[in-house]
Amino acid sequence: MFAMREVAMEQTRAICRVVPGTDNGSCGISAGLESAVGQALAPLDDTSNKAADHISSTITAPSTTTLASHLRRTTSQFRHTNRPSPSTPSPYISSLFAYLESTESKITHDQATSERIKHMLRSRVATRVSQEFARVCADALATISKTEASLLRLRKSRGSNVRVDVGDVVVPSGVDLRGKVPEADNDKIRRQIWLDVDQVARIVRGYGVETDPEFARFVDLIQPFGI
């Protein structure tokens, strides 16, 4: 579909180049013909956009459906493990765009058309992945804050043998947490999330496209975690 449109427009321009008359007249005829052809191809553009949306959705699905489980692993690897503070993005970040790269390798049109298709797919995939990544990371950070608040309340309470459910964290009865709130562990988790978010932003910039606006706002919001 993309190739058909490019061929039609190029043929129109070729015809315009041989239209007799003055330069101004030729330019007017050229613009008119290109406009007419563009209008005629509008349904094709609509079909192409719908196809690109479907393809990008298919490409992003395998990556975005596992994001929540990756974030849970990020939390567990720093919770009461005495691991040092992270300094590199999580390994799974590089795989978020693996399906996009695999799809791009199968595009075999001429260079101009291929680049147009790739840019369209990159833009849509970047928007979908960054939007979902921001949502899942925001949920994880909210759970951490909720956990901290609950543990602080537990520490201040008189009774130590209390069972408390906080998101995915369960504090069993018989465990006294009044003397310790794992703030250092939570800081490490926040730091890892920041590194991962920053890496996604870098990858998207490398593709020459933009992230979802919500992702950009989320980056600004958690900027202090990267300091």
Q: What's the short story on this structure?
A:
The chain is built from eight helices and two strands; from the N terminus they run ααααααββαα. It has helices spanning 2-17, 23-40, 42-64, 67-78, 98-104, 111-156, 183-206, 213-221, and strands at residues 164-166, 169-171.
Q: What are the segments in which pLDDT stays under 50 over at least 5 consecutive residues?
A: 17-26, 161-182
Query: Order of strands across the widest beta sheet?
Result: 1-2
SS element count, helices: 8
Q: C-alpha Rg, in Å? A: 26 Å
Distance between the termini: 47 Å
Shape verdict: elongated
Alpha-beta classification:
mainly alpha
Which percent range describes the beta-strand content? under 5%
3D structure, described in words:
The chain is mainly α and 227 residues long. Helices cover 68% and strands 3% of the residues. It contains 8 helices and 2 strands, in the order ααααααββαα. It has a two-stranded antiparallel ribbon with strand order 1-2. A hairpin with a 2-residue loop joins strand 1 and strand 2. Helix 3 crosses helix 6, helix 4 crosses helix 6 and helix 6 runs antiparallel to helix 7. The two termini are 47 Å apart. About 14% of the residues have low confidence.
